Structure formats: C-alpha cells, structure tokens
Amino acid sequence: MIVGVGTDLVDVARFGASLRRTPGLADRLFSPAERTTSAGTPRAARSLAARFAAKEAAAKALGAPAGYRLTDCEVLSAADGRPDLRVTGRLAEAAVALEVTTWHVSLSHDGGTACAFVVAEHR
C-alpha cells in the first residue's frame, strides 16, 4: 500500500552556484558517501542536485514532518546502481509511525533541471 508520494525539482545551475558560493554547503547537506561516486570521484552538481531533490521528495512523501533535517535522508546507490534511501532522525520516526517498509526512488537530470520522485510504501 502506498503511504506517500513526493516529488521535487531543482535548477542545476542555481544549485551549482549555491555550492560554489557557499563553502561547506555540500558538507552540510550530503554525507561523504553521497558526495562521491562508487569510484571515489566527486559527484557532479547535476547529480548532487538530483540527490537534494530526493531528500525533499522523501520528506514530502512523509508529510514534511516538523523538525526534520535534510541530513535525516541519505541518498545512496544500491549494488545495482539504483538510488536507495536511508532515513534517520525525525524522518525515520515519521516513517515508523506511518509503517513505511519500502522506499522507491527515481532520479533524473536533463535540460538544466534535476528531479526526484519518491514513493513510501507499506507492504
């Protein structure tokens, strides 16, 4: 049963400019695993923008619970390359309360925009 759905769009150029303008912003928004690829190289701004959109979309799927932080959601890559979510903190509390057992995540970037679609499911 679908518990919640969230989506978000991010302007890649604007997001990239924010990362360049604000030293340490990427460190405050993303874990080390989110900031680097499986090969250990830094992720491009478009990829980070899509991950930022997924964090927002995950919060929306849970009703944007009061007190959540963007760092309560980590967007990782599964062994097969698909994006996967790990929630902690306030988002994890909300997910437990809503009995979320499975997350479905889709990330995309094209034409200067990054987007994410998140489905929270109870099986």
From TrEMBL:
Q: Which domain of life is it from?
A: Bacteria
List the subcellular locations: Cytoplasm
- Do you know which InterPro entries this protein is assigned to? 4-PPantetheinyl_Trfase_dom (IPR008278), 4-PPantetheinyl_Trfase_dom_sf (IPR037143), ACPS (IPR002582), Ppantetheine-prot_Trfase_dom (IPR004568)
Q: Where is the 4'-phosphopantetheinyl transferase domain?
A: 4-102
The EC number(s) given in the record are 2.7.8.7
Entry keywords, A to Z: Cytoplasm, Fatty acid biosynthesis, Fatty acid metabolism, Lipid biosynthesis, Lipid metabolism, Magnesium, Metal-binding, Transferase
In which broad location class does this protein mainly occur, judging by the first location in its UniProt entry?
Answer: cytoplasm
Any single GO molecular-function term of the entry would be: holo-[acyl-carrier-protein] synthase activity
Cofactor(s) essential for the protein: Mg(2+)
Catalytic activity reads:
apo-[ACP] + CoA = holo-[ACP] + adenosine 3',5'-bisphosphate + H(+)
Binding residues annotated for Mg(2+), in chain numbering: D8, E56
Q: Identify the NCBIfam families for this entry.
A: acpS, pantethn_trn, PRK00070.3-2
- Described function: Transfers the 4'-phosphopantetheine moiety from coenzyme A to a Ser of acyl-carrier-protein.
HAMAP family the UniProt entry points to: AcpS (MF_00101)
Q: Which family does it belong to?
A: Belongs to the P-Pant transferase superfamily. AcpS family.
What is the name listed in the Swiss-Prot or TrEMBL entry for this protein? Holo-[acyl-carrier-protein] synthase
Q: Which gene encodes it?
A: acpS
